[in-house]
Automatic annotation (TrEMBL):
The gene is RAB37. It comes from Microcaecilia unicolor. GO terms for molecular function: GTP binding; GTPase activity. Belongs to the small GTPase superfamily. Rab family. This is Ras-related protein Rab-37 isoform X2. Keywords: GTP-binding, Lipoprotein, Nucleotide-binding. Pfam families: Ras. PROSITE patterns: RAB (PS51419), RAS (PS51421), RHO (PS51420).
Length: 194
């Protein structure tokens, strides 16, 4: 991958843990470094406020040895590619392999095709994202950080999944994240001109 190309990268949602620069009780600055930026986001799920600590990792290969140390304990990973960049899409498989090796076995993974607002520059069809996501059994949607399309939904779906896991009674059915996303998501093509 060219260093100048937009890169696919995992954004992690992490719990607190001793010995690493992370966790909701630590200040934002302590969990960040030259290649990782962090933000806290509050999401209300069924009346319960859930705090997500989001780590935005750089996608470049040169940072991979650093980033896997960070996403190893993530509860959720958002894998983003840029719909206008084939290399960012092609990198997703490599990230999924990395994740399989280093991440928690029950990590929530979501594939996001970002920049859905620039449909005229699109090189990756939504169907290609859907096919890749199906292959790996992960939910998929197209997003736009510019218009906000599906961004709240992505975080809400993850917060719902994590909250359900945390408070679920043994006889309670699992939260169906795929079904929830499919019922809620907006298609990129219909909203490209927003
Ligand atoms: N039109 C449009 N531009 C976007 C969108 N998201 C990001 N950008 C632009 O794309 C460029 C790169 O954005 P970044 O957020 O730095 O991308 P990144 O993937 O985090 O970059 P790395 O961390 O270096 O891999 C910036 O100029 C953003 O303004 C989007 O949804 N739509």
């Amino acid at each position: 991958m060219s260093r100048r190309e937009p890169s696919a990268a995992p954004n992690g949602v992490c719990p607190a843990e001793e010995g690493r620069p992370q966790g909701p009780n630590r200040s934002q600055s302590t969990c960040c470094s030259h290649d990782i930026t962090c933000k806290n986001k509050m999401v209300t799920v069924d009346g319960v406020r859930v705090k997500l600590q989001i780590w935005d990792t750089a996608g470049q290969e040169r940072f991979r040895s650093v980033t896997h140390a960070y996403y190893r304990d993530a509860q959720a990973l958002l894998l983003l590619y840029d719909i206008t960049s084939k290399s960012s899409f092609d990198n997703i498989r490599a990230w999924l392999t990395e994740i399989h090796e280093y991440a928690q076995k029950d990590v929530v993974i979501m594939l996001l095709g970002n920049k859905a607002d620039v449909n005229n520059e699109r090189v990756i069809k939504a169907e290609d994202g859907e096919t890749l996501a199906r292959e790996y059994g992960v939910p998929f949607m197209e997003t736009s950080a510019k218009t906000g399309m599906n961004v709240e939904l992505a975080f809400l779906a993850i917060a719902k999944e994590l909250k359900h896991r945390a408070v679920r009674q043994p006889d309670e059915p699992k939260f169906q994240i795929h079904e929830y996303i499919e019922s809620q998501k907006k298609r990129g093509s219909c909203c490209a001109f927003i």
